[in-house]
Amino acid sequence: MSINVKRPDGTNRVVITGMGAISPAGVGVKALWDAVMGKQCCIAPIERFDTTDQDVHLAGEVRGFDATEHGMTKKEARRFERFVQYAVVASDEAMGQSGLDMEAEDPTRVAVLFGSGIGGIEELQKSFKTLFEKGPKRVNPLFIPTMIGNMAPGLLAIRYGMKGECMDIVTACSTGAHCIGTAVRDIRHGYADVVLAGGTEESVSPICLAGFSNLGALTKAEDPLCASLPFDVRRAGFVAGEGAGAVVLESLEHALARGAKPIAEIVGFGSTGDAYHMTAPSPDGEGIARAMAQALAEGGFTPADLGHVNAHGTGTPANDPTESKALLSLCGEEVGREIPVVSIKGTTGHTLGAAGAIEAIVTALSVANDCVPPTTGFAEADPECPVNVLTEPLTGYPQKVALSNSLGFGGHNASLAIAPFCRTAQ
Question: Ranges for the Ketosynthase family 3 (KS3) domain (predicted)?
Fold first, then answer.
């Protein structure tokens, strides 16, 4: 039986052939997956800096990270900000799994779409201090190219010799999902054969914690196990996390031609705006519901086909009811209350610009392995969130399609429809 490499509309099918991650669970996709499936809480007291004067003392840090232990030179580790280092480590893993040989590729057909919500915030904070204390002549001459967010895709392109489109898409906490979704469209319509896509963030820093905390977005809980509580009635804000997620995406035709093994297929992408508020999601959930509907429809699915939702699920008072309303609006009250829902932020905290990519990886593994992970931290259901939040892994559960949702400040909504790879097009 031959494999149909095209969608019914004649465009290219897009598959994931490599994945890489660095997260508060550690370095590698396996560490992330084991932590999520094992309901591990990777949130702990902050070690990187003194939090005595801060209102918040917990975060999802990447602890003990040394870039030179993960394939980077001392010069690279010295010059690259942490958000770039995270992107490189995750991308090296994804490239390794994909088996992509850039020497055998047309580099102009290989693109990089990799974003960061905040970029080099630590270099920015450090250089302001230098400017005010020591004067302008003492500011690092590499301050600008070190700090700006587009250095992640730029340096990844240099590292691997990728000469196609090279972009940093920034939509706050939906950055990773928007980078992946845009990459899917590029491949689907023939602008690239391969795209390295994802998101990265180094948000555990004094200035970020102060800003988010003063905004009222962060929980001030002192117990790590009671801090990040997606969909739980006790939730009081998100926990800052950091890391990166990277995926190698290819047209199915290209992947099969070089003998690659698809992990999962991205069948649809929905992207909408709320046009409502600077930081709050539209409380009716209309925007994210519309994005979810777009993603399913683009893949040729209906809400009745939905296996589970990997929710944005930040554990803030506003986000979780909004997503709950969106799911019930999409599927109807009765069906919407039954569809399994997971948020991995109880394990990792909220990794901001990296979240959409890290969560897409978990969603891909979920559909590939016929399972749905539990939500770490969830214990007491909230009547305002009447959805089926899992407290234990659901296994032996084949799915046609799942959705991975991401929402960002400014009213940005993204939803990725991810399906198990099958030989025939949907």
Answer: 11-420
172: three-class secondary structure by DSSP: helix
Instruction: Choose, from 41, 42, 173, 226, the residue flagged as catalytic.
Output: 173
CB crowding 351-362: b at 16 or more within 10 Å, else e: bbbbbbbbbbbb
Q: Which contacts of 254-261 are long-range, i.e. CB under 8 A and separated by 24 or more positions? A: 254/193, 254/194, 255/15, 255/17, 256/3, 256/5, 258/99, 258/100, 258/101, 258/104, 259/99, 260/17, 260/98, 260/99, 260/100, 261/17
For 20, list phi and psi in degrees, rounded to 5: -145, 150
Locus of tokens 């994804």: 94
Q: Each residue's pLDDT tens digit in the chain (426 positions)?
A: 579 999 999 999 999 999 999 999 999 999 999 999 999 999 999 999 999 999 999 999 999 999 999 999 999 999 999 999 999 999 999 999 999 999 999 999 999 999 999 999 999 989 999 999 999 999 999 999 999 999 999 999 999 999 999 999 999 999 999 999 999 999 999 999 999 999 999 999 999 999 999 999 999 999 999 999 999 999 999 999 999 999 999 999 999 999 999 999 999 999 999 999 998 899 999 999 999 999 999 999 999 999 999 999 999 999 999 999 999 999 999 999 999 999 999 999 999 999 999 999 999 999 999 999 999 999 999 999 999 999 999 999 999 999 999 999 999 999 999 999 986 665
